[in-house]
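Sanity check

After download, print the first record. It should look like this:
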Amino acid sequence: MKKSAKLAIAGLGVAAMGGLAVYSYLDVMYKETIPKGPAKRLFEMMDNGDLQGLTDMCVESMKWVDEQDIETITMLSDRGEELKGFMLMVDEPSKKFCVFAHGYRASHRGDSANFFKYYHDKGFNYLAVDHTASGESGGDWVGFDYYESQDMLKWLNYLIDRFGEDIIITLHGVSMGGATVCKMADKIPPQVKLIVADCPYTSAIDEFTSVAGGAGLKRTAPYFVKAMNFLNKKLAGYDLNDTDVRESVKNSKVPMLFVHGGSDDFVPTYMGEELYNLCNNEKDIFIVPPAKHAESIVQDTEGYFAKLDEFIGKYI
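Expected structure tokens:
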């Protein structure tokens, strides 16, 4: 084969890889409006249907939620995006609130749904938000805790302005939402008394590298993630390195409860354990051995709620 032909083929290969990288990036980071692409398929390869039990539980939980008087709240992010929050107030006036952060591509009807009734029965007003580019909220780019943590701080200020400086707040998040509440840990106002972080990742960089590696791309994963971050800085306007939650957890202002599935190979269990070990405030950890990703509430519902009772009772 002539040298010119080899160069042409190599050029086509580079262009194809570049096109794949761009599509994969948009597939993961852009609002869910394009057909399912290779990056989401990588996530599905890692999931292996693990989320079906969680999905079924969310659907069942929403049957109760849909019978309640839910207030829809609209707020603008600092980026000018319209964000939606969904609040269930308890019957008797209460100064206690839980603000819930959902996982990647979820909404208030996803993992948030499983905690509406629990917190309501505990006397907490419950605010489940739809993050940017998710659910009923606007926005184009998923922030993997970078934008979400900023928006959640605005939601906290909204509650304080509306209901008073004397309210008491619990933060609770699952998966990307778990990382979001971890990212907030050193920035929260004094009204927040504790944080529950369920299966949080240490950073989006770590998470993407783990997913790609687990899907058989271990040797090329760092290059894949580096290419995604290059595009992310250009298009979404933030650096994926800024999603790292370690320093925030290390300097947490409040006690933290970490929850993780002992069989989680999507956001590996060691990430939650690392964050637990880094936390210098009062802390606890609840590992559910058979649970895969975000499945702790499904595999041990009674134990999960009992641990919440214990932790909340200790600090509120």
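If your output differs, re-run the checksum step. Summary of this record's structure: The first strand starts at residue 71 and ends at 76.
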